[in-house]
Amino acid sequence: MQDNAKRRRTTAMIACCALAGGFFLTARWGLTAAEPSKGKTMDRPGMKISASGYDLTPLPKEKVDELAKKLPPESFRITQKAGTEPPFCGTLLDNKKEGLYACVVCGLPLFSSEHKFNSGTGWPSFWREFDPQHVARKSDRSHGMARTEIVCARCGAHLGHVFDDGPKPTGQRHCLNSASLRFFDKGAELPPESRPTRGRSPEGKAAESASDSGGTAQTEVAYFAGGCFWGIEHYFQKGPGVTDAVSGYMQGRAEKPTYEQVCRHDTGHAETVKVVFDPRRITYRRLLEAFFKMHDPTQLNRQGPDVGDQYRSGIWCVNEAQQKEAQAFIREVQGSPRFANKKIVTQVEPAGDFWPAEEYHQDYIEKTGRACHVQDPW
Q1: Could you say which of 103, 152, 155, 228 is catalytic?
Q2: What's this model's pTM, rounded to 2 decimal places?
Q3: What structural domains does the chain harbor?
């Protein structure tokens, strides 16, 4: 199916939905009495979820102001007025305990003790974030300098700055103000605002780094792009140990892309399936094996009749462990007889923002009963 044919089919499908009384506006949003698909996650509309499962939906100014009023004066000055504490004075500078560092304003986990190091600068320093999506960057030209400011991605609180003089493997130094952070000992009970939105443990315990597992102790997250997401989503849902599969868009330039924008190549996104899985029941390698059976990783910017960079083959990794395993797996299968005379072109990249696709794309094959060229890998 070519892009135009696919768009025509989708348009026809939406029209049929309207004539049928909005069949596809499922009970996920409480709009009809239709049952949602088994195992699907019920996120609220507009909700933005990080790769490690945390709610990154920007807080409204009113809520930030309400939270900021509860802060000590020094934390308020630093987080709300972009202040800086004196060097060698922060309470967390010499903290050597294991645990996580959350935003003092909204509670979002930002950094882990696992990545803390002594930079000698007088401020707490980390060579990477708890989850890269949790820390936003801004250009800062104050005080006659050109620097990169880092802020909380959820509430916008000023945290400090990031510099390119850190240790390997990132070469970065995230220079933080202690007053902008709240520390939780490893194993301590976390408040609701510091827990992931899905797959959380009942106790809500602090882990060392959610980004190292891609989820929680119960579930992990993986992202795969292999052409049209309808078939990839459908067959991943059938995997033993897979608890959820959602169609969406990733690795693009714009926020909240629409299907039409992606089809016009306006945003650079790839049609992607988010896979939530229980690592006790299915391994990440098994997901890789299934993915390579479901699509042809040697086709560049296409899958079968679907042509365009939105159909590129890609594995978007939530942590370094996934990236290493994906790269090793590709090297392994590249040397197998199946790919002896074909080059695998699958991209392996750190995961960016995941934007769920429109509702009519979710469970498309299940809803329509249409056949799909994607092979059942199970």
Answers
A1: 228
A2: 0.48
A3: 61-194 (2.170.150.20), 219-368 (3.30.1060.10)
